[in-house]
Structure formats: C-alpha cells, structure tokens
From TrEMBL:
It is found in: Cell membrane. The keyword Cell inner membrane does not apply. Its main location: membrane. This is Permease YjgP/YjgQ family protein. Signal peptide: none annotated. InterPro entries: LptG/LptF_permease. It is a multi-pass membrane protein. The chain crosses the membrane at residues 12-36, 48-81, 102-122, 392-412, 419-441, 453-474. It comes from the Bacteria. It comes from Fluviicola taffensis (strain DSM 16823 / NCIMB 13979 / RW262). Keywords: Cell membrane, Membrane, Transmembrane, Transmembrane helix. GO terms for biological process: lipopolysaccharide transport.
Length: 495
C-alpha cells in the first residue's frame, strides 16, 4: 500500500506542478493586460516589477489552484486508465475510492493550506500590490511630459518641454486655456513637477520665466443702422510678468486615482482575514442598529402627540427641571379633540396645508437619505460577508473539482495535454461562470442570493456532478449509460 501511495502521489505531482505553473502564467498575463497602461513607459526598475509580480502572484495562487487540481486530476487518472494501470489496480481488488485515497488526502492538505494562505498571506499581498500600483500611478503625471512635443492630457492645458527626465525639466512652456476670455502663456527656463498631497493638483515649481496674458477679442457692437464695430479697435489688453521663482498650480481633471494609500485602504475587506472580517461585520451591524433606532426615535418625536407621551413617561420616572416641566405643560395644552379643516378660516387652512406639505416633504427627504445610507452600509456588510465565505468556498471548490476531474479522467481514458486540457478548460469555465453569477447575484441591489449561497453556488452545483461521475467511474459505467441512471435511481440495489 505504501508503494501505491508513493506511485499515486508521483503520478499526480508532475502534472499538478506543470498545470499550476501554466495557470499562474495565464493569470499574471491577465493582470498585466489590465494594468498595462500603468506599467508601460514609466521607466520602472526591474526590482519594482519583480516585487509587484511577487505580491500579485501570491494573490493569484488560490485562483490558479482549482484549475491546476482539475486538470492534473484528469491527466493523472487518464494516464492510469490509458496505460491499463487503473484496470490492473481494480483487478487486484482495490476500489476506485481506495485507489484515490492517497490523492484525496493530498488534495485535502492542499485545500487546508490554501485556506490558511488565503486567510493570512493574501490580505497582506493584496495590500502590498495595491500600494505598489498606487506608487506607480503617482509617477504617471511626471511621465505625461514628453520632450519636444505638446502634452494635452490635462484638460485645459497644453504643456511642452525641451528636455528633462524624472520630474526635473528645462524649457517649459504652458498654455493655459482654462479661462476662455484670457490667453495665458507661461515660459520658464527650468522647473520641477510634483503632485499635491491630496492628489488633486499638479504643481510646477518654475525658475526664471515670464507670464504673458492677453484678453480675447471683444464681441462686436451693432449700431441702430445694423453696422458693427469693435470697441477699442483691434487693441487687446495684455500684460507680461517676469519672475525668478514661482509655483504654477493646475487641477488634475481626469486623473483622480481609484486606489488609496496603504494606511487608508488597509481596512478594506480584501485586506482582512476571517477574524478581522468578523469584527468588522459586528461593528457594521452595531452601526446599522444604532442608525435605525436613532431614526425611529427622531421620527416619533417629531409629532407632538408622541412627544407628549414620551415626556409624560419621563416625568414619572425622573424629576424634571423648570424648562422640561414648561415644555410638558405646553404639549399637554394641545387640544384632545380632532380639529377639522372645515372649522378653520381660509388663512388657517392655507397655513395648515402648507405646514403639512413642508413636514411631509421634510420627512420624505429624511427617509430617502436614511434609506441611501442604510443601503450603503448593507452593501458594505454584504461585501464583508462575501469575502468571509470566499475564503472557505475556495478550499471547498478545490476538493470538489478533484472529485470531478479524477473520475472523469478514469472515464475518458486519455492522458497528456490533449483531450484533458479541453475538458478541464470547459469545466473550469463552468465553475468560473457559476462563481461570477453567484457573486453578482449576491451583490445585486435585489439581493437575489445571500452571500453564503453566492459564494458556495459553484460548489453546490458541482457536488452532484462529482457524485454522478464517481459512481460511473467506480462501476465502469459511461456517463450517458442507462445502467448508470438506473443504478442511481435504485440506490445501487440492482444493475
């Protein structure tokens, strides 16, 4: 039996390592394609690229493992069946479940290690690579300026430099079009470019330059006879200012960064482990409960009748000061009988209706604002829930995909990178589509699925498929064999 264990693990280990490496390369290429605009042409050092890819690779490992497990299990059992080794093992009295026991234990160890990796390592890796991307995007502004050509990336400005690198340039010319009535041109011998601390403004620290401002031509004026003339003729007021040192500020429209600094987004749900997520969920739940309770109290106390009841109950349990007693007496002076609009004068009716409309509109606005705030908090709560279940569902998917791939490989009896790769790609596409659908349904406004079912949807769908394939492979049935379905419907009592 030890020989069978060693043989099974060796047969599984080789394809697993190869397929895992291929999966990682594919996922890294996908990441690179998404961030290609931020990485290309930035003059990044090799060390920065290696560090970024290292942290990104750590975050992609749980995504590559399911595909690697699926493909390697199909290839391993396919090779055993194709070489008649699986038939020999069955002929010696070993069931398929016994043959798969060493691989099952190995996959369970991998799934457990994946959970701990996703729980403790990936949050740190996500935090690190998000921070690196932020730093790279911070250098994006300096890379906008190309020597010898105008840059119009920043709305309202045309910037040209003669030479320079990094953030230091020479021969700077800035045409400012932000004010349509003024033509402004700034020229400087040299300057340093940097971004403000808030990231909203680009600052040029210029040396030895001039600022030339000229008003646009004024609109023509028409006389009573329909003739037009320009006031002041062709004269356009202008002025020129010289400076030795100046700071020119321009707003970075269109360059707002979606990422935040490390200390700002380190509490995001993607950067937390399950224990931190649980604490964050409890905090959000307390905030939701407090907001709901406070809004209910405010809504109730807006009506005099409810206020009078509240003050009356308060006076029974605690003594009041003079102001509170006076307020209670005023509230109790409200007439108990119903006042009809028909009993009021015209002016009183108009006043009452206007007051009611103002109160209703105010209440409606408060309710809408409260609903929006609660929806936002509930959405954040669901995101934490989704991330919490994702860490467990990923390990479960690894185990289930193994029990899908292993019997499938035994049924198709094909090893290598031919048919197994095609089948694994199709099955993984099904898994990925189910995963995406579950996540979208869990995060939709209608909340069609709970976060639990949204994350466990692929596993729930694949478990019956895995069970059917295991029964078929263990009893040498074809997937579309009538005997298989008769065996399943009769719970294996007759064949």
């Amino acid at each position: 039996m030890k020989k069978l264990t060693v043989f099974s693990i060796k047969s599984f280990g080789g394809p697993f390592v190869v397929t895992f490496f291929i999966s990682m390369v594919m996922l890294i290429m996908q990441f690179t394609w998404v961030y290609i605009d931020d990485l290309m042409g930035k003059g990044l050092g090799v060390a920065v690229i290696i560090e970024l890819m290292f942290y990104v690779s750590a975050g992609l490992i749980p995504l590559a493992l399911p595909l690697a497990i699926l493909l390697s299990s199909i290839m391993t059992l396919g090779n055993l069946a194709e070489n008649n080794e699986l038939t020999a093992l069955k002929s010696s009295g070993l069931s398929l479940f016994r043959i798969l026991r060493p691989l099952t234990q190995t996959v369970i160890v991998i799934a457990t290690a994946t959970f701990f990796f996703a729980n403790y390592v990936i949050p740190v890796a996500n935090l690190k690579w998000h921070t690196i991307i932020y730093d790279i995007q911070e250098t994006k502004v300096g890379m906008l300026l190309t020597p010898g050509s105008y840059t119009k990336e920043i709305e309202g400005y045309a910037i040209k430099i003669k030479s320079g690198k990094d953030n230091t340039f020479k021969g700077i010319t800035i045409h400012d079009y932000t004010n349509p009535n003024v033509l402004k041109t700034v020229k400087a011998d040299s300057g340093i470019v940097y971004k403000g601390d808030d990231g909203k403004y680009l600052l040029f620290h210029l040396s030895n330059g001039i600022i030339h401002e000229e008003l646009q031509a004024q609109a023509p004026v028409f006389t009573e006879q329909g003739q037009s003339f320009h006031p002041g003729g062709d004269f356009r007021p202008s002025r020129t200012t010289q400076f030795k040192a100046a700071t020119y500020k321009m707003e970075l429209v269109g360059f707002d960064l979606n990422k935040s600094k490390e200390e700002l987004f380190k509490n995001d749900y993607e950067m937390l482990n399950v224990f931190q997520i649980s604490a964050a969920k409890d905090s959000l739940q307390r905030r939701l409960d407090k907001m709901t309770t406070d809004f209910a109290k405010v809504s109730i106390n807006k009506h005099p009748f409810n206020q009078s009841i509240g003050y009356e109950n308060l006076r029974k349990v605690a003594p009041q000061n003079r102001d509170e007693t006076k307020q209670i007496e005023q509230l109790q002076a409200i007439p108990e009988k119903v006042i009809k609009l028909s009993d009021l004068t015209k002016e009183e009716r108009i006043t009452a209706i206007n007051n009611a409309l103002v109160s209703a509109r105010s209440s409606e606005k408060e309710a809408v604002d409260q609903e929006g705030m609660l929806d936002m908090l509930n959405t954040n709560y669901d995101l934490y829930q989704i991330e919490f279940h994702r860490k467990f569902a990923l390990s479960g998917a690894i185990i289930v995909l193994f029990f899908v791939g292993a019997p499938l490989g035994a049924i198709i009896r094909k090893g290598g990178f031919g048919a197994p790769v095609v089948i694994a790609a199709l099955l993984f596409m099904v898994y990925f589509v189910l995963f995406s659908v579950g996540q979208n349904l869990a995060t939709s406004n209608d909340k069609i699925l709970s976060p639990f079912w949204g994350m466990w949807l692929p596993t729930a769908v694949l478990i019956p498929i895995a069970a059917i394939l295991m029964i078929a492979a263990a009893n040498d049935f074809g997937v579309f064999d009538k005997k298989l379905w008769r065996y399943i419907l009769t719970f294996g009592r007759r064949r």
